[in-house]
Amino acid sequence: MSDIEALLDRIAERQRREPRNKREQNRQEARQRLVDAWRELYVARKHTDTPISELAKKAEVSVGTFYALFSDRDELTQDTAIDSVARMIKGIKDLTWDSDADAYARVRATLAFTLEFAERHPMEMRFFLRLSEAGTPEAKAFVNVWDKFWESHTREALTIEHERAGRAIPFDARVALRASHGMVAAVLDWWLKDPESMPREELTDSLTRLILWGLMPR
C-alpha cells in the first residue's frame, strides 16, 4: 500500500467512526473548531507562534481541551492539512474520463477540480499555499505526500500521451511536477485574492494550455 493510499484509508476510517456518546461528539466538535480556527490564524499571520490561549479562545474551547486533543501546534497543523489534502487527492483520483482521453482532457479535468475546490474552499487552499512555503517538519511531510501524488499523476498522464505519439518522455517527470506545481500555486495565490478578475472556466482553459505548451513534445 502506498503512502497516499494509507493516508486515504486513515482518513476514511476516522470519518466512518461515529461518536459513541455525547462526550465523544463534543470532542469531535471541539477538534473541528480548533482546526477551523487554526486555519484562519495560520493564513492571516506571518508567523505561526500564536499563543495556545488565543487559539483556544477563537475556537471557543479551553486550553485544557486543546491539550487533550493535540500535543502542540505542530500536530494541529498536520491534522489541519491531512483532512483537506486527503479530500483533494480522493477527488482527483475519482475523476473519470474516456479511455482515449488525451493529455489535454486529463490535465484540464485535474485543474478544473483543483480550481473548483479552491473556489468552494478558499481558506483551505490558502492554508495549503501558506503551508507549502513553510520549512517546518509538518509542512515538509504535507508537501512530500502531495508531491508524490502529483509526480505519479503527471508521469501517468504524460507517459500515455507520449506512447501514443511514439516518443519517449524527453524530460524527468519530477521536473514537470516542480514546474507545474510552482505555476499552479502562483496562479491560485493571485486568483484567490481576486476571484472576480477571471471566470474559473477561462482560467482553467488558459492554465491547461500554458502547462501543456511547456510539457508536450514539439
Q: Can you walk through the features of this model?
A:
With 218 residues, the chain is mainly α. The protein has two domains: 3-72, Arc Repressor Mutant, subunit A (Orthogonal Bundle); 77-215, Orthogonal Bundle (Tetracycline Repressor, domain 2). The protein contains ten helices and no strands. It has helices at residues 3-16, 22-44, 52-59, 63-69, 73-93, 103-120, 122-133, 137-164, 173-193, 200-215. Helix 1 crosses helix 5 and helix 6 (103-120) crosses helix 10 (200-215). The longest helix has 28 residues, at 137-164. The radius of gyration is 19 Å and the shape is elongated. The model has no long low-confidence stretch (mean pLDDT 78).
Question: Could you give the distance between the termini?
Answer: 37 Å
Which stretches are low in confidence, meaning pLDDT under 50 for 5 or more residues running?
A: none
Mean pLDDT: 78
CATH topology of the largest domain: Tetracycline Repressor, domain 2
Portion in beta strands: under 5%
Helicity range of the residues?
A: over 70%
Q: Which CATH top level class of the largest domain fits?
A: Mainly Alpha
**Mind telling me which CATH architecture of the largest domain this is?**
Orthogonal Bundle
Shape: elongated
Topology order in helix (H) and strand (E) letters:
HHHHHHHHHH
Radius of gyration: 19 Å
What do we call the CATH homologous superfamily of the largest domain? Tetracycline Repressor, domain 2
